[in-house]
Amino acid sequence: MLVITGNLLSIKGETQAEEKVEKGDYIRQERRFGSFQRSLQLPDGLMADKAEASFKDAVLTPKVEAR
Prior knowledge:
This protein is an all-beta fold. The protein has strands at 2-5, 8-23, 26-41, 46-56, 59-66. Helix content is 0%, strand content 82%. The strands form two sheets. It has a three-stranded antiparallel β-sheet with strand order 1-2-3, with no helix packed on it.
């Protein structure tokens, strides 16, 4: 989720991962999950209503146009 309040860009999300390994006479299974939130102060002069963000290969890339 992407929220802009004034010059503050806030990004919230949730992560989940599951891994199962079967070897010989044992099985190991791990589950990870949780939420995260990041906030970035944007410089003055940006068009907050035109803000977008993309997430690919664990890299978050915000896009904001200048006035």
